[in-house]
Amino acid sequence: MNQMKKIDIYEYQGKKLNAFFPAFVEKILHDNSDGNSYGKKILIVFGDKKRMRDFDKLLWESNPGSWLPHLLATDENAKHARVVLTADINENVNDAEILCTLDSPINDIADIRNFSRIICFFEKGTETENTSSLLKKISLNPEFDFHSYTQQPTGKWE
């Protein structure tokens, strides 16, 4: 029997994503709460290449005391990286088990079936009707352990 896939949807407030996202990625890299996440590879998919480049820079510069190693999917060494950034959900060059999307549409359940964990971030109020419809289908699908969180103006998640 296949293990249920965990999917978490985070609806964030405006520009607050830059403040928490680097720490969130670092937490995922070191998370072992499910007993088997530690050491898994992450594919981070962006809605467009400009946003991907902006976050590439943010991840390198966010914490001067530490750095978050990652590569763009176009880098020749990306297949060896634990964290890969791309604007194409089908560009899983590092065979990641964890998919993280940032304001990037998921067009079909088939796009996410090869991942054991899926984490989606959407800016509050920007989710498209197509994405909302697909997320509703996913939430009703017994193949997925679905959770949804909304960031409050204070920054707290509920």
Describe the structure.
The chain is α/β, with parallel strands linked by helices. It has a single domain (about 5-150), classed as DNA polymerase III subunit chi (Rossmann fold, 3-Layer(aba) Sandwich), CATH 3.40.50.10110. Helices cover about 25% and strands about 25% of the residues. The protein is built from three helices and seven strands; from the N terminus they run E-H-E-H-E-E-E-E-H-E. It has a seven-stranded parallel beta sheet, sandwiched between helices. The longest helix is centred in the first third of the chain and has 14 residues, at about 15-30.
Number of extended strands: 7
CATH evolutionary superfamily: DNA polymerase III subunit chi
Q: Summarize the amount of helix as a percent range.
A: 10-25%
Query: Which CATH class is shown?
Result: Alpha Beta
What would the CATH topology be? Rossmann fold
Task: Briefly note the structural class of the backbone.
Answer: alpha/beta
Radius of gyration equals: 15 Å
Task: Give the strand order of the largest sheet, numbering strands 1, 2, ... along the chain.
Answer: 3-4-2-5-6-1-7
**Intertermini distance:** 32 Å
Major sheet = 7 strands, parallel
Number of helical regions: 3
At CATH level 2, the architecture is 3-Layer(aba) Sandwich
Low-confidence stretches: none
**What's the overall average pLDDT, rounded?**
82
State the domain count. Answer: 1
Q: SSE order, as H and E?
A: EHEHEEEEHE
**What general form does the structure show?**
globular
Strand-residue proportion: 15-25%
